[in-house]
Amino acid sequence: MALTKKEKNELLQLLEWREWKHNKTAFIQECCLTRDEADEGKVKHFPEKDYLKRVDKIITGEKISIFPKSRRMMMTWRCLANLLYAAMFNPNLAIFIQSKKFEDSTYLMSDDRLLFMYHHLPMHHSWPQIIRATKDKLGYGYIQFDNGTTFMAIAEGPDQLRQYTASILYATEMAFWEKAESTWNSFRPVIQGGGKIIVDSSANPGFFKRLVTGKINEQSDDKELESHDDLTGVHEYRRNGAYIARIHYTADPIKRDPVWIANEKAGATTEGWEREYEINWNVSINPKYYPEFSYERHVAKEPLKPLEGRPLERTWDYGLTPATLIAQQTAKGQLLILDELQSFDCGMRNHAKAVRAEMGTFYSGYAANDTGDPAGNQRSQADEKTANELLQNEFGIYVSPGAITQTARSEAVRYYLTTLTSDGQPMMLIDPSCTRIIEGFQGGYHRKVVANRILDEPEKNDYSHLMDCIGYLCAKMYGQKNTNCFDEWKAKSRGRVRKAGCM
């Protein structure tokens, strides 16, 4: 018996539904529309690109997927399309979208992004319906579908997910987050609960760079695992417990054309092109607090070794993210930054135990002078002890208060960054293993920007603690030198004298 037209349509819809449910890429390519801002806002299907299909497969198969990317690769749209697919075909999911700011996350859930694709799904199918949506000025902070699946917008920060259980977490532009490391550490319960993490970002110095190119703990591998390049412009490997796919603009055949490259370069600064398109990790978007720093000049070419017979200089910063710097000064006045220790969500007692273990392992037999945060004499609300009292009574460490003002610390740091020893060496040399300090100098530690105004003060973030330790160290050694020498240097640095020198 022949099928009626209605029955044929119903059968076709059923076959379509089954195909889309079991083939995510087919759903995205056939059902999801985007808006191309680079082409007068035209509404388009996703282009048929092999690298985008590969992204779908990686997200499907991996618990943690990380995508360092060039600009204009449609990665944000594609990740959102993957989230929409999960919401349409799976009930009772808790999906979180996390950006640097809450407003950025709400925009990604707005009628211009996630809900744009949702509202343009094929109308002849019955999709889960929105039963609740909390509107924000740029988008939506919360969306609930009648199949029980929800979307929630959140900002960066280690406490944002503490009270929730996430099925899927999408973290976008993580390289530009102020609290990237502490936020990343808070992601672990998502995986332990069986959830999935998706991260994408352009390049910028900081924790995200270390996550995809270096080691984040002692157990991490020194090199990439399972490294391969099956597609042009897509470099895949495992590192730090994540599957990483670097999406370079050459993954798109159109963007390999020298004419396209020349046109794009014509409207970009050299630094902007390197950061946004070439995925150069050493170029920062933020106004560096210490632009005087040079990786080539201030980072040692090989690991530094402590000098026998000379004391170590240790500096301390307190709070729930305590930090300690281990350094040494040579006979010529050069500061050698030997080691860095940073703790997260950890009290001073446990951090001091870690420092003691580090000293016993690598610096046994060396005397040490200790300088720290002047706030170390403030009493803790938990046990009514100051940090300095705890270090003194339980560990035999006597900490002298460091420079109080930011100006005193920063001027001292700039002195050591811009001055040479008598034999022409930089006055500050950093061990290459001190990755957090190096990242801080490269732009992780940067000036505060408020309402598009660049302030003189630094932004408080995950790099502040070790950078404050650098400040305490330099201010102490700075103050021990000849005062006239420093007056001359300060005058020179401010342009009041044409020629001044002190070695």
CATH superfamily of the largest domain: P-loop containing nucleotide triphosphate hydrolases
Anisotropy-based shape:
elongated
The CATH C-level name of the largest domain is Alpha Beta
Total of helices: 18
Biggest sheet, strands in spatial order? 5-6-7-4-8-9-3-12-11-10
Mean pLDDT: 89
Structural class: alpha/beta
Tally of distinct domains: 2
- Poorly predicted sequence stretches spanning 5 or more consecutive residues: 495-503
Total beta-strand segments:
20
Largest sheet: 10 strands, mixed
Rg, rounded, reads 27 Å
Q: How far is the N terminus from the C terminus?
A: 100 Å
Amount of beta strand: 15-25%
The name CATH uses for the topology of the largest domain is Rossmann fold
Give the helix level as a range of percent: 25-40%
The CATH level-2 architecture of the largest domain is identified as: 3-Layer(aba) Sandwich
Describe the model.
The chain is α/β, with parallel strands linked by helices and 503 residues long. It folds into two domains: 255 residues, P-loop containing nucleotide triphosphate hydrolases (Rossmann fold, 3-Layer(aba) Sandwich), CATH 3.40.50.300; 199 residues, Nucleotidyltransferase, domain 5. Helix content is 36%, strand content 22%. The chain has 18 helices and 20 strands. The strands form four sheets. It has a ten-stranded mixed β-sheet, with helices on both faces. The chain has a six-stranded mixed β-sheet with strand order 17-16-13-14-15-18. Helix 3 crosses helix 4, helix 13 packs across helix 14 and helix 16 packs across helix 17. The protein is elongated and about 100 Å long. The chain starts with a helix and ends in a 10-residue tail after the last helix.
